[in-house]
Amino acid sequence: MPNSRILKTRVHHLMAIAAIFCTLAFAAASADQAAPLVPPAKALQLLLEGNQRYVADHAGHPNQRPSDSPQHPLAVVLSCSDSRVPPEIIFDQGVGNLFIVRVAGNTYDRLALQSIEYAISHLGTTLIMVIGHDQCGAVTAAMKTYPDSGAGPMLVNIYPAVREARGQPDELSKAIDYNAVLMARKLEHEPELAEKVKGGQLKILPARYNLKTGAIKLLK
């Protein structure tokens, strides 16, 4: 009986050790999965090249099949919900290439921010692009309701851009640009992102999409 107890104890110890090693192996694998696959400049290059293919009507339509592999998106795209601005199509990307957060007016709140932070912290994404677009209905609405604070958080989030554009020629166009720029700057100062931006591990860029040509123009 004593020998039996000793044997059981040893088995339990071995199982505990095995469990620890499995946990460590899983943690290591998770860390590997979170490692950046491409630097920010390369990710940007791939997106812009994809947009050029789209504009030239030479889209390659990559990665169009279902995938259950770990995801390593090239970029986070914070874009408007407008149906004419589908990020995977305008950048000629496919399944697993982009981590997309879409909100009318391409603004963000705490919930949207948590999605963005997840991609940066856990998926190894190194680029965030904030995309405004021509004829943005949300920005147009914000210009009409400004400065009414009761208009709702979506429009109120756009008010700083509306205020910046006031009195300038083509106020709507200016407000669309300012909105993308201000959202990008705001993201740069979010605590979970600021350190990576400062260290060059993360790039956050505002851009504008041309509805007529399909071209993306960087705003800084």
Structural account:
With 220 residues, this protein is α/β, with parallel strands linked by helices. It has 2 domains: 1-34; 37-218, 3-Layer(aba) Sandwich (Beta-carbonic Anhydrase, Chain A), CATH 3.40.1050. Helix content is 51%, strand content 12%. The protein contains 9 helices and 5 strands; from the N terminus they run H-H-E-H-E-H-E-H-H-H-H-H-E-E. Strand 1 (75-79), helix 3 (87-90) and strand 2 (98-102) form a beta-alpha-beta unit. The longest helix is centred in the first third of the chain and has 33 residues, at 2-34. The model is unreliable at 6-34 (pLDDT under 50).
Write the layout of secondary structure elements.
Blueprint (H helix, E strand, L loop, with lengths): L1 H33 L5 H16 L19 E5 L7 H4 L7 E5 L7 H13 L4 E7 L3 H9 L7 H4 L2 H7 L5 H18 L2 H8 L4 E7 L6 E3 L2
Helix pairs in contact: 7-8
CATH-level-4 superfamily name of the largest domain: Carbonic anhydrase
* Major pleated sheet: 5 strands, mixed
Q: How many H/I helices?
A: 9
Number of strands: 5
Mean pLDDT: 88
Order of helices and strands: HHEHEHEHHHHHEE
Compose a concise summary of this entry.
By secondary structure, the protein is α/β, with parallel strands linked by helices.
Task: Give keywords.
Beta-carbonic Anhydrase, Chain A, 220 residues, five-stranded mixed beta sheet, alpha/beta, 2 domains, 12% strand, 51% helix
